[in-house]
Amino acid sequence: MHDQTIAPGRPVPVSAPEADTGAGTAGAGRPRPLLIGAYAFPHGDATSNRLLQLARCAAPAGARTLVVNDWPCELPFPAASGEVAGIELITLRVRGRNHLSRMSARLARPVRVLRVLRARQVRRGDVSVVLLPMAMLTLGNWAVLRLALGAPVVVDASERHDRRQFQRGWRDPYFVRHRWSTFLATRLIHRATVVSTTLGGYLRRHGLQVLVVPPQVDCAEFAPPRPPSLAAGLRLLYAGTPGRKDMLHVILCGISRLTPEQQRRVHLTIAGITRSDAARLSDLNPAVLDGLSAEVTFLGRVPRQSVLDLLAGSHFSMLVRPTGGYAANGFPSKVPESLAAGCPVLLNHTSDLADYIQDGVEGLVLAGNGPDDVRRAVERALGLDDADWATMSRAARSRARRSFDHRAWRDRVSTFVAGGDARH
To answer: Would the pTM count as exceeding 0.70?
Structure first.
């Protein structure tokens, strides 16, 4: 097994056998945060994006968070990339040819992280705090990093899964690991950033100090919205992997209850799942598609930039979720991204969404999560003119800048992870 490192600003060929061991600047200056990940970072999925924005705002002004990301063995390794704005990134790669080698790499992760830090001349005292996603909190990671670096560990909790999300319930290995990490956090960790007030309340009851930080975005990377006139039809978008958390079937059923004339004015794009996989990977019964007059396009998995382009060309993004359980503890990252793109949202209130989405301002709020709730909201959207929509789009972008851009959170997050009180 070999580690490979992409140093910021100095691309390393994929064939390089070892991490860059040249002298770096990581240890220079005052102590700063260190974030450890094991994802397709920085733009692989919602978790990667959350960690990127968290890293950007965790460091105090004038400093950059050091991120060491252990690229997942099972995912294709991308071409070497340069610097990621706002952080210093070191990417490790292990060639995991089988289950045993991948498991060994995971168990040895904290040691491999320390090895590459030593190669970059990061010593004990150079790290002010270790930021760790809740899913990566293990006894080994906590003990090795805490003792070797002498810095407190702060976890980021972005979800609390419900066993009903998994076909095997309590027997699902992922769910067991998730609950074990949560258990460890309540015994070993004193401070946590969390994605919602519900999840924050759970950890507070177990004695942790908590800062609620919703999913963040970089508003600068979103182009201005450019959908066609509503006179040409209403363009709706669902982007994501619905699984058992998003009610895709309800969205389609709601559209099917519009009159045929209304349906012919609706264009729904579904990015993240193919039509053939819909029955297997979501709650959608494909039979509901047979009687639709609306135009429905399945794109399957698409790159992140394609999602941003789709948001820029849509009138509304759509999201319907159950209440309670997973939905109450999480926070859909697709909502801040839609707002930042100037694409208002058509959704029901779950989690903390009522604090950010006002009906008729940043989006259209469903009265519930049933098909008729969707139908009524789409009817309202069909009744808008271009001026009405433009007003909502401006309000959406304004909300994103005030409430979700990572720059708006820097003072609070950097103060909190450093040990201060950032509640106000």
So the answer is: yes
